[in-house]
Design brief:
single chain, alpha+beta, Uridine Diphospho-n-acetylenolpyruvylglucosamine Reductase, domain 2, Vanillyl-alcohol Oxidase, Chain A, domain 3, 3 domains, five-stranded antiparallel sheet, globular, binds flavin-adenine dinucleotide
């Protein structure tokens, strides 16, 4: 393949599908290419063809076309991959962004969703029925790739990574057929869908999701601390995390300091430490009693401001997440799972945030809560990496002229944190700059099984996989 598709072939494909085909030489190509990435730091990788499919049958046609014409396939769900994973050179990009239907069986508590449905769209339909799904922390996150990655969403310690709530999926495989993957048929495909992330080797066109009773009194307490107190706060949070029930999400953020607190923060480069706990419980009394533990932090008297026992329904929690990760910005993101003492981990991150070039950047450290932690509740699936804490580190800025300085800072910060890592999260790690992070997002045997399934289901490597290390 020389990078060009014969015009006749493109015309024939367009005539066979309801969606839209755009070639690299078409007038609107660059705009469509950029729209494929939510992150405004759009990668300089250029598909030969972009096909915005309108139906599942379109996907079948496009897969068969790619096979006939010797093209490699890349897939886009909703384009939220931080690294713009779906944009690949030498590829035919299947964009699933128009597949956004939802159908809910409230009795059976199952939702059938097409890939581009967002967490907000799903939960807004479920909320009036007292139901919920463990969607991502920001409203716009599409379920497509989020579910494939594992899905570390709301109430994750209790509901588990969202991929374990996938009961079945419709999949278009590399030979161009549609199969159903569930526990009875193609169980190995379901195993892979639950966590393979961008290493998946087919196209999921529909998910069938198990729904949950929505907790009736979701409540959040938030404490703002100066960064120089972060060691004490982190050490204490690490020591109590296991005492908290799994229904509590416990986090420490480094986030832009609210204007009202700026003076009290001391030398902080515009950042403040935020200790936040959300209880996904059914009564306000239970939630208040549980969150009361946060008053026991040994430096609680040094907290700059607190907002305790705030009612925070799922939509409000997502709005809060959306404010921390704003739209139309440029991002670099990376993650690490760690079992190191949280005080050391966060003190190291703090030292870098004190020199962050962008005041919008963000770190979030999520603690595993509950006596057993996450590992004990993981069923067998591709998703297989967890630890006591998950640290997420984002450089966030707006102007292209600030790319270099933010990239250098993010690279140095991540390099300093790397020694604390036992693994990574495939959905939010920089698996393009550091391809080895893909393998380190899985337990060893799970990674090997994933490679073996790829060879079975896609023997001709029709689908682009992970970048090579
Ligand atoms: C603002 C923001 C907040 C986020 N919050 C969270 C969070 O709370 N928890 C969390 O776990 N993650 C979170 N993420 C990360 C998110 O899970 C990933 O970005 C995920 O890839 C988003 O799904 P997508 O469909 O938009 O991915 P895309 O960018 O469209 O796809 C990425 C890759 O996934 C694969 N893929 C996606 N869909 C399919 C499919 N249907 N079939 C086959 N392959 C597919 C393809 O290889 C594709 O190239 C967040 C991301 C952003 C930008």
């Amino acid at each position: 393949m020389d990078g060009r598709v014969p015009i006749t072939g493109v015309k024939e494909l367009q005539s066979r599908i309801e969606g839209k085909v755009t070639t690299a030489t078409d007038a609107g190509y660059e705009q469509i290419r950029c729209e494929m990435s939510w992150n405004q730091l759009t990668p300089m990788r250029y598909p030969q063809l972009v096909v915005q499919v309108a139906t599942e049958q379109d996907v079948v046609e496009v897969v068969r076309f790619a096979r006939t014409h010797g093209m490699k396939i890349a897939v886009r769900g909703g384009g939220h991959s931080w690294v713009g994973f779906s944009l690949r050179d030498e590829s035919l990009l299947i964009d699933l962004g128009r597949l956004n239907r939802v159908s809910i069986d409230y009795e059976a508590r199952v939702a059938a969703i097409q890939p581009a449905v967002t967490g907000r769209e799903l939960n807004s339909q479920l909320a009036p029925h007292g139901l919920a799904f463990p969607v991502g922390h920001c409203p716009s996150v599409p379920l497509s790739g989020y579910l494939l990655n594992g899905g570390l969403g709301l109430n994750c310690n209790s509901w588990g990574p969202a991929c374990f709530s996938i009961e079945a999926a419709n999949v278009v495989t590399a030979d161009g057929s549609i199969v159903v993957a569930n526990q009875e048929q193609h169980a190995d495909l379901l195993w892979a869908i639950r966590g393979a992330g961008p290493g998946f080797f087919a196209v999921v066109t529909q998910y069938f999701l198990k729904l949950y009773q929505a907790p009736r009194a979701i409540t959040t307490s938030t404490y703002y601390y100066p960064l120089h107190r972060i060691e004490e706060v982190a050490a204490w949070a690490g020591s109590v995390a296991r005492q908290l029930p799994r229904e509590v999400e416990l986090k420490i953020f480094f986030a832009p300091v609210p204007a009202a607190l700026a003076k009290q923060c001391g030398p902080s480069n515009g950042f403040v430490g935020i200790l936040s706990a959300t209880a996904f419980l059914d009564t306000a009394q239970e939630a208040t009693a549980t969150l009361g533990l946060l008053e026991n932090c040994p430096v609680a008297h040094e907290c700059l401001q607190k907002e305790v026992n705030q009612p925070t329904p799922l939509a409000a929690l997502q709005d809060m997440g959306g404010m921390l990760l704003p739209e139309r910005h440029r991002y670099l993101a990376d993650t690490l799972w760690s079992d190191s003492p949280p005080a050391q981990l966060l003190a190291t991150a703090r030292d870098y945030f004190l020199h962050a070039p962008s005041p919008k950047s963000l770190a979030a450290c999520a603690f595993s809560t509950g006596v057993e932690g996450r590992a004990a509740v993981l069923p067998d699936a591709a998703f297989s990496m967890t630890a006591g804490t998950l640290l997420l580190c984002y450089a966030i800025w707006e102007r292209p002229e600030d790319d270099a300085v933010n990239a250098a800072w993010h690279r140095e910060t991540i390099a300093a944190l790397d020694s604390f890592a036992v693994g990574h999260y495939v959905g939010e790690s920089d698996i393009v700059a550091e391809p080895a992070r893909a393998e380190r997002s899985f337990a060893r045997t799970n990674w090997q099984r994933l490679q073996s399934l790829r060879r079975t289901y896609d023997p001709d490597a029709l689908f682009h996989g992970f970048f090579s290390a």
